[in-house]
What does this fold into?
Amino acid sequence: MNETYAFIEAEKTTHGVAFLCRLLNMARSSFYAWQAAAKSRAARKAADEALAHEITVIHVASRHTYGVPRIHAELRRLGRAVNRKRVARVMREHGIQGVHRRRRRSLTRPDKKARPAPDLIGRDFTPSGRARSSSGTSPSSPQPRAGSTSAAGLTWPPARSSDTPWPTTTAPPSSSTP
It folds into this structure.
C-alpha cells in the first residue's frame, strides 16, 4: 500500500489526486491520512535506528550470544522501557540473532543394512479359530435369546408397557420350607 501512496505522491503534480485515487480504486482520505502521518513515520524510523544501535552495542558486548529475551531484559535494566516484540522486530530487520543451543544428537544409530535378529522361540501371534471374529463378544459368553430370563430375574429384551417405564423383573421362586 505504501508504494501506491508514494506513486500518487509522485504523480500528483501531473494529475489530480482525485483522478489518481479513482484510477487506483482507493479512498482519497486514506492518501491524505498517509501523507499527514509522514512525520510520525520518520520519527518512528529514527527511534528504531537508535534502538538498533543500542541493541547492537548490547549484542556485541555479550559476544553475539544474547537473543531477544536477554537483550530486552538488559534494556529494561538500563531503564529503557521498550516492548519485547519491538526488540524482536528491530533485531529481525537488522539481522541480529542470538546463539541457539545445539540440537541433541543421538549417539546410537541403527545400521540400515543389518538384518533383524532371528526369532529363536518361534512364537505365532496370528489369531486362530473363533478368536478371529470381530463381533466384540467372547466365545465363552453366548448372546441371550429373546424372551429369556437371566439369573437375576431380568427378562431380555425388557418388556415395556405404558405404566412401567423400567424393565420388569420376576421374583425368583421362593422355596417354602417349614
